[in-house]
Amino acid sequence: MKIVKWILIAFVSLFILLVGYLTLVFDPNDFKPQIVDAVKEQTGRELRINQDLSWTFFPSIGIALGDISLSNPTGFKNSDMVKVNNMVAEVALMPLLSKEVEISQLNLDGLTVYLDTYKDGRTSLDGLNGKEGAKPESQTPNQAGSATQIKRLNIGGVTITNTQIHLFDEASSTTQLFVLEKFALGEFSLGQVADFSYRFTATLPDMSVSSEGAGQLTVAENLAQIKIENFAISNGIKGEAIPNKAMTVALKTSLTLDLNQKQVSGLLSEFSANEIQASGKFDVDYGAKVPAIVASLELGDIDLDKLMPKSETEQEQTTQTASGSAKEPDLSGMKAVNLKFDMRIKSVTVAKLKTTNWMMKLGLKDGVLDLSQLSADLYQGKLQAKAQLDGRQSVASYRFDKSISGIQVRPLLTDAADVDMLAGATNFSVSGSGKSLIPDNIKRNLVAKGQFEVADGALYGVNIPQMIRDAQAKLSGDLSASGTGEKKTDFTSLTGSFSMAKGVVTNPDLAMASPLIRLAGKGTVNAISEAIDYKLTTSVVGSLEGQGGGERNALQGIEIPFSITGTATEPKFGLDTEALFDAKLKQETEKATEKLKDGLFKKLGGF
Predict the structure, then answer these.
(1) Distance (Å, rounded) from C-alpha 175 to C-alpha 205?
(2) pTM of the predicted model, to two decimals?
(3) pLDDT: is 193 or 528 the higher one?
């Protein structure tokens, strides 16, 4: 027992001597002038330590700092760059002798940072890299290899409160504020689970953000693996540009970082943004020269109309601004990562267009984005597409293949473009390629071809039987004839092909069949100006009875010409009267010629 007693007395004596030395002999305030002078010499800034540095001895040895500031360069809006109200670090001494670190508490309160940026390029960070030409001391291989290895790390807790970052930009006359109200890490040890939480706000020129979250942190004993589990985050966003001026975003996720394998994996178990629900997962391999990401995402019902700006004026201004300053996008970042991404969406509604069962598979490798599958169900039919975007050159190139089958085209056109022009079950396919992603250049440079077929449909906006009756009346001498009735023409099939080059869509072979008429057409639509120049010819193959007319002989065998002009959104249909009379005259001439031939044959005895 005596030996234990003497050991205890020796330990207490050693501790008292250490405290006496630190307080009476080693005064940390003696180093304040040297620290201030060193900062002044290296950066040209003023470091002020207004509060005396003091030791703490219970329950652990530590040092307390307070009222510290570092100045901004002369002439800046904010005189100080950094301010600290109070900082305390307490470390257990004895475990350090065994290469074990025990920190009873780390507290940081009132850290404030002011970062100013001016039009002439000056920033608050100027000069903080030390004297020009100064070279960092290099370690020899032996020195680098002799670094102390930590056997154990225990932290009683970490608390950071009232941290603020102020950003000022003179060029845009904007100020931004980021506030970490509190970050707390509970009792932490290597290989053990530790709770953490935070509360954060941001004030930006056009929105404000508030965020808070909590989770669990585990760091492996060999420091090679870090896990964040059950990380629940709740965000609130407000601003004029935000849908309905406010949005709530919440998620729950888990992350694993493997430093040896250089891999990160994550699971998004829950995600919600207003009415959008999602879940997913991802894996990142950052050990290679180009990081590789594999990810998948599943979403529920998405109504993009609720997420779009409600002001049409705002949309028009945005479009005009974008067009006025259009330039090729920089796609060099596509080479910085390789990606495989799968996504499923239950339904998407945009501009009244309703679609379901979206499936997408895309890959990004060496600067080439490959959309191998994009499919969806819409309007009783199916959409399928493939595309590729090559971003390896300064001007990007692209190609695509797209098809739709069995879609009811009238509700699709009505919802998508407010155009009530065509009805029927539609099959459509198109493939194309081009260069440049500037909107106007896409129209000019796109080279494409395709074909379409519409069955059991109708043309709205034109009543061809009525126009035929008008034509018949005009041929009979009534030039003022103009019928009334529903502007609709039924048909059994409508087919054709098309091509696009230099901004002009050309259709050379439109063909429409119905019990009454046959219709053929050809012409162009200018995709840039939207101007239409199209000609239709119609021939009567059935009786006008039941269609509001009683005769067909007057127009039997005559091709009746129609024209379509105007624009794609406001087409204008008209009867080409001059061409009609020419066709009738030609028919009558041919009849007279045939009569003359018959008469001559009879007079010549049938020869």
Answers:
(1) 7
(2) 0.69
(3) 193
